[in-house]
């Protein structure tokens, strides 16, 4: 064997060291080091800070632009309720009108309010104290009358209400109870004058002064069984009598 061939098989120690070193390191570089694989994968999967910020900004803008299904359903429900309220308004007012008419009917109890309805007997069934029936005393056409009134059970005193149901023209009356004047020279107006009396008793309304067209007045005594108002005429110097009896 020649010296050249021996040199190929057995290189010098320095070359063998370099070869071993390069081979070892090449082996390590060629394959992944321990722990390098998972670290690289995690780095590849993790988004950068800029990408995360951009994604969050986009999500916020999308949520601001597009309302959620819950918001849409809430708006639709609110709109539906508003439309239903508008549709129900006519029915509501119709119901209120019907209730008002029923209340008026129950309060008046089918009462009459015209002068022609009370002219024949002087009785206004269910009419309230202070009601106005005529524009002038001369148009009333009432004749003087006396009345007997039965009071409800258990009533021992009552309040007499007297007013001018026509024009306030200065009529003056005196009210007596059991022959004694309790209110003298009382001017009567649309607002009722109140006088307290015992039950039973005898009430007289005496005409004192005629303001023009005759002295006409209305009288009502709450607690009477009839619940009616009475309309009368009292010429000067004459009286109308109301006899109250208990039960």
Which features would summarize this protein structure in a list?
alpha+beta; 247 residues; 10 strands; transmembrane; five-stranded antiparallel beta sheet; 6 helices
What does this structure look like?
This protein has helices at residues 3-9, 13-30, 36-45, 49-65, 69-108, 115-118, and strands at 123-124, 147-150, 157-163, 172-177, 180-187, 193-198, 201-209, 216-220, 229-233, 239-245. By secondary structure, it is α+β, with helices and mostly antiparallel strands. The chain folds into 2 domains: 3-63, no CATH class; 115-245. It is elongated. Residues 1-87 are annotated as: Disordered. The chain crosses the membrane at residues 91-108. Residues 1-18, 33-74 have a biased composition (Basic and acidic residues). Residues 23-32 have a biased composition (Gly residues).
């Amino acid at each position: 064997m020649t010296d050249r061939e021996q040199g190929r098989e057995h290189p010098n120690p320095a070359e063998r060291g370099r070869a071993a070193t390069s081979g070892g390191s090449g082996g390590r570089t060629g394959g992944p080091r321990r722990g390098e694989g998972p670290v690289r994968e995690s780095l590849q999967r993790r988004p950068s800070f800029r990408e995360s910020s951009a994604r969050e900004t986009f999500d916020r803008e999308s949520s601001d632009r597009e309302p959620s299904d819950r918001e849409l359903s809430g708006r639709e429900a609110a709109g539906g309720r508003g439309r239903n309220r508008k549709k129900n308004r006519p029915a509501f007012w119709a119901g209120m009108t019907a209730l008002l008419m029923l209340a008026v009917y129950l309060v008046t109890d089918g009462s009459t309010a015209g002068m022609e309805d009370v002219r024949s007997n002087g009785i206004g069934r269910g009419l309230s104290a202070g009601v106005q029936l005529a524009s002038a005393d001369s148009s009333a056409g009432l004749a003087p009358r006396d009345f007997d009134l039965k009071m409800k059970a258990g009533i021992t005193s009552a309040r007499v209400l007297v007013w001018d149901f026509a024009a306030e023209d200065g009529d003056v009356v005196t009210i007596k109870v059991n022959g004694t004047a309790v209110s003298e020279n009382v001017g009567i107006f649309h607002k009722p004058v109140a006088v307290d009396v015992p039950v039973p008793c005898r009430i007289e309304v005496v005409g004192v002064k005629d303001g023009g067209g005759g002295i006409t007045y209305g009288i009502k005594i709450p607690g009477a069984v009839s619940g009616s108002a009475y309309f009368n005429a009292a010429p000067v110097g004459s009286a109308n009598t109301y006899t109250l009896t208990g039960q």
